[in-house]
Amino acid sequence: MVDQAEVLTDLGSYLKAQREIAKLSLRHLARMTKVSDSYLSQLERGLYQPSPDVLRAIAEGLGLSPDQLFRRMGWLPESEEGPTSVPDAIAADERLGAAQKAALVQTYKAMVGDP
Question: At what angle do helices 26-33 and 52-62 cross, to 10 degrees?
């Protein structure tokens, strides 16, 4: 069985890394998603489980698929087809830490000219 605290910590690290890759402050993301910056901070620290609506808003603000975040929460089954993009493949690699994933995705986006 998956430890819920571990899931929330992983999600929080992932959200923070994606926000940093997008070069967004907490306040800017809060304005974009209509979720308070203090709540976003708590999510990034793995303190709360967000609702599907909050996760959807955050995903849209970060340019991610909501399904990707729902899978991280265990709300959707993992795709049997494997990752659909390079950032998804990096995110799925359990050998990498959050900072390493963020650096690789940022490097990849810079190389392919994706803002």
Answer: 120
Indicate the burial class of 28 (C-beta count within 10 angstroms; 0-12, 13-18, 19 or more): middle
Burial class of residue 89 in the structure, from the number of CB atoms within 10 Å of its CB (0-12 exposed, 13-18 middle, 19+ buried): middle
Q: What is the CATH number of the domain that holds 67?
A: 1.10.260.40
DSSP assignment letter at 84? S
- Give the number of domains in the chain: 1
CB-based contacts of 67-71 (< 8 A; 24+ apart in sequence): 69/11, 69/15
3-state SS assignment for residue 115: coil
Query: What tokens does 45 get?
Result: 């620290």
pLDDT tens digits, 52-96: 999 999 999 998 889 889 988 988 887 666 667 888 888 888 788
pTM: 0.68
Amino acid present at 58:
I
